[in-house]
Write a structure and sequence with these properties.
Radius of gyration: 21 Å
CATH class of the largest domain: Alpha Beta
Distance between the termini: 64 Å
Number of domains: 2
Shape: globular
Strand content: 5-15%
CATH topology of the largest domain: Endonuclease, Chain A
Order of helices and strands: HHHHEHHEHHEEEEHH
CATH superfamily of the largest domain: Endonuclease Chain A
CATH architecture of the largest domain: 2-Layer Sandwich
Number of helices: 10
Length: 250
C-alpha cells in the first residue's frame, strides 16, 4: 500500500480512516469482493464529520472524545458529586455552570458555544438506539443552588421527566449512606456490548480530564458504580427526592 508507519498507526488507532480506493485494494487482497459495495458505503459514512467536530476550536478534546465514545456505546454509567451530569443539564443550568468557569464578559461566544454543545449532546439520551443510561447523584447535588432557585428547580424537574425514558435510570445516594468507594471523584464508564475489553472510564479533574481504556481500571470503576447503586435510594424514591428538592428550591 506504500503507507508510512505513522499512517498505519493512525489507522490502527482509529485516528484516521482510509480512502475508498485503498479500501477496494485491500478488499481485493483479502478476497472479500462480494462485500465491496456494503463496506464502501460504510467507509463513505465514516468519512463524514460528526456534528461535534464543529466545536473542536472551543471544547476540550477529551470531552469531544467522550461524546464520540458515547455515540457508539451500549451503556453509560455515571456518578456525579457536584453538579447534574452535563448530558442531563438544561440550557439555563448549563449556562450558569459554565459562567463560573469562564468569564462570560471576555468570552461570551465561547460560553454560548459550550452551552449549545451540552444542549445538543442531550439528544443522544432519547435518540434511536440510544445507550442505556444509569446515573447516580450524590445528595449534595440536590442542595447546591445553581444560577437561581427557579433554574435549579426546573433542572431537577427535568431529571424527573428524563427518568421516564425506558433507557434512563436516575438514583440519589443519600448522606445517610455514609462513606462509599467513589466519594473521591466523579466518573463515567462507557461500555460497548460487542467489545467489553474496549470499555473506557472518563475521569473529570480540576486540571485536566482523563480517559482510560485499561480493562482493569475500567472494571474497577464499574464495580464501584454497582456498589454505589446498592446503597442509593431506589429509582422511585430518588425521583420523589428530586421532586421534593425542586419544591424546596422554587
Amino acid at each position: 500500500m506504500d503507507w508510512s508507519l505513522s499512517k498505519m498507526n493512525r489507522i490502527e488507532k482509529a485516528k484516521s480512516g482510509i480512502s475508498i480506493n485503498d479500501l477496494k485494494a485491500l478488499l481485493s487482497l483479502y478476497g472479500i469482493e462480494e462485500r465491496t459495495e456494503e463496506l464502501v458505503d460504510l467507509a463513505r459514512a465514516a468519512r463524514q464529520s460528526p456534528w461535534w467536530s464543529s466545536y473542536r476550536d472551543i471544547a476540550p478534546p477529551s470531552l469531544l472524545e467522550l461524546i464520540d465514545y458515547e455515540s457508539a456505546a451500549s451503556a453509560v454509567s455515571q456518578f456525579e458529586t457536584i453538579f447534574v451530569p452535563g448530558i442531563l443539564q438544561t440550557e439555563e443550568y448549563a449556562s450558569s455552570v459554565l459562567q463560573v468557569f469562564y468569564d462570560e464578559k471576555s468570552a461570551p461566544e465561547k460560553v454560548a458555544a459550550l452551552v449549545d454543545l451540552r444542549t445538543r449532546r442531550r439528544d443522544l439520551v432519547n435518540s434511536e438506539n440510544a445507550p442505556k443510561f444509569s446515573f447516580v447523584l450524590d445528595e449534595s447535588v440536590l442542595h447546591r443552588l445553581v444560577g437561581s432557585p427557579v433554574i435549579t428547580s426546573r433542572q431537577f424537574m427535568h431529571l424527573v421527566d428524563v427518568a421516564k425514558l425506558p433507557n434512563v435510570t436516575i438514583q440519589v445516594v443519600p448522606f445517610t449512606a455514609g462513606m462509599h468507594p467513589a466519594m473521591k471523584e466523579p466518573f463515567e464508564v462507557v461500555q460497548f456490548e460487542d467489545t467489553p475489553d474496549e470499555n473506557i472510564v472518563f475521569l473529570e479533574g480540576p486540571r485536566s480530564d482523563i480517559i482510560s481504556d485499561d480493562p482493569k481500571e475500567t472494571q474497577s470503576y464499574l464495580e464501584a458504580f454497582e456498589r454505589i447503586t446498592e446503597i442509593s435510594l431506589g429509582p422511585s424514591d430518588s425521583l420523589d427526592r428530586l421532586r421534593r428538592a425542586a419544591g424546596e428550591m422554587a
